[in-house]
Every structure is written in C-alpha cells, then in structure tokens.
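My current task is to audit a protein record that another person submitted. I need someone to confirm that the token line plausibly describes how this chain folds. Take the sequence as given and treat only the tokens as open to question. This is what I was given:
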Amino acid sequence: MKKTVIHKADTRGYAKYEWLEARYSFSFGEYYNPERVHFGTLRVLNDDIIDEERGFGTHLHENMEIITIPLEGELEHKDSTGNSEVIKPGEVQVMSAGTGIYHSEFNNRADSKVKLLQIWVFPNQKNVKPRYGNVKLNLEDRYNKLQQVVSPYNYDAGAWIYQNAWFYLGRFSNNFQTSYTLNDNTNGVYVFVIYGSVSVNGELLEQRDGMGITDIEELEIASQTDNAELLIMEIPMNVSFKKVAGVQG
C-alpha cells in the first residue's frame, strides 16, 4: 500500500555549534526523534553550513555508504586510504566505510562558508574494503532533466555505492514538468527540495522540504519556481546485507 511521509524544512532537527550550523532530516547526534530514525536504507540527510577555516577533525566511520554533495564553497577531504582532495559544487563524493575509514572535512577558505548535504545509506554488504570516489559532473546536464549522480556498483553513471540505490539531481525552469520512473519498483523514494518549490505527485514541497514515498513506480514532478533544484534518492526499504559477487572494494 502506498505510504507517504512529509518532513517540512522547519520540523527538522537543528544544532548550532561554534563553527557549524546543521539541520537534520533524521535523528543524528543530540537530535533524536523516534519517528525519524531512517527511511528505509536512508539513514542520514544532514544540511550543513561550515564556517571559514573550520571543519570536522579526523573521525571514524564503519559499514556505511557516505555521500557528500557540496552546494556552495569548497570542502577539503582527507582520509586514511590516502585520498586528499578539494570538492566543489558540481561534484559528488562517495565513501564506502566498510571495515573502517578515518577522514576529515575542512573549509580551508577564509572568505566563504561551505554549504553541503551529507547523506548516509546503509550498505547491502558489510565489512568491505574501504573505498573513496569522486565524480565531476556537468551542471548543464541537470537543467530541465534528471542527472544520475549515484548508482549501484554495477552501473557506470555517476558515483557508485554498495547498495541498490540511485540518486538524481535536477534543476528546473518555472512550470517545467517531468516524471521519474523507479529503476526497481520494490524500492522507495525520498525527494528533497534543495532550492525553490516543486510539486511531486501533487504535493507542494518548498525549499528544504523532504518527502518519502513507498509502493510507487513513478513520480510526477512540476517545478513551481525558476531554478528549482530537486534531489531524488531511490533506496531499498529493507536494511539487509548480502554477498555481492565480483566486487573487490
């Protein structure tokens, strides 16, 4: 049976630290809401603003797929697999934490803040070899269309993760209409409006609103403002782990 949950932007968790302002769509850190622990395998959707010349020190992650989408500014990434990179808007970073990866995220600019989305997805395989990936995308490829930015390990578009999940970004002109057909109709889908206003299956979503839908095969999308930007996350609804043949990490 079709089920819909709506998370309005102003109902998210909120934290303000000396150098970080964060809003949480799902329980995270000191914010806990028993009705918002996760949506299927989507565990975390954090909307972060990091001050100039500040950031997250080195810390550990295990058995989680971590996707970072920069929105504004530049974020310096370093990790225990030897990767060191500055990621910018138009790029998507993924980490398969697996058996354990240490990393840090830092805004090394003195003249601008960093705004980003960090997303955690439960993997479908535990204890893989930690891995890092970063893809640079053509922003024009998401204008009035859906640009695939994350996919399962056996697909070649965007970055890949250990999960039967697909992420898309779209930036739309006012009154633009399109549809999205799920790659796997056993999945659910969670949509998040980054900028502007978008109607999804007749439900008006404003900036930073989120909506999760299950038991559906297609979304009908209609932009209500110019340059509206939408993130679509199609994910399995059951958290389970299995052997993924042929994947070495």
